[in-house]
Design goal:
The chain has helices at residues 44-56, 81-93, 109-112, 118-123, 136-146, 159-163, 165-176, 206-211, 236-249, 269-281, and strands spanning 32-36, 60-63, 99-102, 128-131, 150-152, 183-184, 190-193, 195-205, 225-232, 257-264, 287-289, 302-304, 307-312, 320-323. The chain is α/β, with parallel strands linked by helices and 329 residues long. The N and C termini lie far apart (52 Å).
Length: 329
Amino acid sequence: MTPEARIPEERKTAPRTLEPLIRPARLRPGARIAVVSPSGPVPADRLEPGLDILRRWGLEPVEAPHARAVHPELEYLAGADEARAQDLQEAWCDPSVDAVICARGGYGAHRMVDLVDWDAMRAAGPKVFIGYSDITVLHEAFAERVGLATLHGPMVGTETFLKDPDTQESLRATLFEPETVRTLGLPGARTLVPGTARGVTFGGCVSLLAAGIGTPHARSSARGGLLVIEDTTEDPYSVDRILTHLLRSGALAGIAGVACGSWEGCGPYEQVRAVLADRLGALGVPVVEELGFGHGPTGLTIPLGVPAVLEAPADGGPATLTTEVPALI
C-alpha cells in the first residue's frame, strides 16, 4: 500500500475556503419573531421585559410552546431534548414567522441539534436567527447544514439585553437598518497582533466550538475565515486548553484573522490576554481584542457567514471589524 493510499479519502482534496452564506431579509415593523429556548430555562422575570423591548421595536414576539419549560429531572434544560428541537423546527418552518431569537443560552443545544430535521429547515427558506453562548452550536448547524448567515447577538432573557442600551441598539439597528452598523467594535477594541485580514466571519463561544470537533456535520474547514470568539467563566488555563485543542485538531488551519470579544469571569484579563497572545499569536494572522461582543457588559451583534475586513492597526489606532455587505438584505 502506498503512503497516499493510507490517507483518508476526505483528506485527499484541498480544504475548502469559506464562502459567504445566504443572508436573510431584514425585518419590518409588524414582523413576527418566534422566541425559543433550545438550551437552558429562562426566568420569567427576565423574559417578560425582553418581550416588551421587542414589542417597542414594533415586532410581534411569539413564544414557542416550551419557551418557559423546565426539564422535570434535569433542571438545567428547558424541557426535553425532543421538545426543544421541535420548538425550533416548527418556528422556523412556520411561514408566518420572520425571525427566531433564543431566550437564553446555558447548556443543551448539543443534545438537541441532531434531532432537528435540517432538510426541512433548509426547505423553509432563509430567516433571521439570533443568539450566542450555547447557541454557537446552532450557528454552526445553520452554516453547515442550511448555508445560512446568522446573527451572534443578544437574547431576550439575558441581563445584558435588558440593561444595556448599546446592546439593544446594536441588535435593533442590525435587524431594521443593517447598512448602518457595518463597522463593529467598541472604542476600547485594540490590536493584539497587527495587520489587515479579509474573510468570512464564523465562530462564537470558543468552548462550544471546541466541543463540536468530531461531532456529526462538524465544520470541515475554516480556511479563509475570520474567527470571532469569546467565552465566560473559563479560567485562563482552561482558555489555553480550549485554544490548544482547536490548534491541535487543525480546526484553525488557514484562517485569515481572529476577533476576540469579552472574557467575562475568566480571571484577571491580563492573564487571559497572555494566553490569547501566546496561543493565537502563533497563527501569524491579525488578532483584535475586546471588540465588544459576547458575555460582557455590552454585547454587540456580530453577523456570522458574511465577508468582512478585520483592521488591527500597529500604531495603536482603533481596531475594527467591518462587514463588506449588510448583515441582512
